From TrEMBL:
Pfam families: Ribosomal_L29 (PF00831). This is Large ribosomal subunit protein uL29. The keyword Metal-binding does not apply. NCBIfam families: L29 (TIGR00012). It comes from Malaciobacter marinus. The keyword Ribonucleoprotein applies. Belongs to the universal ribosomal protein uL29 family. GO terms for cellular component: ribonucleoprotein complex; ribosome. GO terms for molecular function: structural constituent of ribosome. One of its GO terms (biological process) is translation.
Amino acid sequence: MNYTDIKDKSLTELNELLKEKKVLLFELKAKLKTMQLTNTSELRAVKKDIARIQTAITAAK
């Protein structure tokens, strides 16, 4: 996900996307703790996506 994809979305869409990504991050962390996560780089990618979404929300205000 690139910032250019996110910046054109409305504030409500961004908030929904942020909720989805935070739930995904929670699930990935749970899988990591139970040794079910095979690709640990997913955590980093989701965290970066969350940061991009939060930046777009701040810019939209």
